[in-house]
Amino acid sequence: MNKNETLQQLRQARTGHLRWQAHAQSILSAPNHLDNISEKAPMNHTDCQFGQWYFGQMEALKHIPGYQQIDPLHERLHQLYREIFDIMLEKKSGTFNWLFGSDARHRQRCIDKARPVMDQLSATSKELLAAIDELQKTIEQMPEPA
């Protein structure tokens, strides 16, 4: 893969990540859509499209400064997403809650509980995007191979 193809791959990875982040945020903004649970189910950070790209084609970049910073951030995003997902799927507990509890109130409690985790996910996402941008700058400054 040449320099231009590598940079194009980085841009696509960045765009894909932004799409994924919007998808993750939709769990809180549209919790009724959890009916399509399999579409939103968390996965291992090496199995998602970004992870397959990072540990596949882009592993050739592991010698470039900045490459190694991406994986821990990406893995952390998946951990936070799993936490949000689990919170949003919490069942109401207790007999009285089951009998008399409101689904809307329960859903709101879950959203309130998940919101700080989503804030962490957003902050980690910004760090990941900054790391991708730094890697892109480093590659842009590299000379073309002869």
TrEMBL record:
Domain Chemoreceptor zinc-binding: 17-84
InterPro entries: Chemoreceptor_zinc-bind_dom
Domain of life the protein comes from: Bacteria
Protein name: CZB domain-containing protein
Organism: Thalassolituus hydrocarboniclasticus
Upper classification of the organism: Bacteria, Pseudomonadati, Pseudomonadota, Gammaproteobacteria, Oceanospirillales
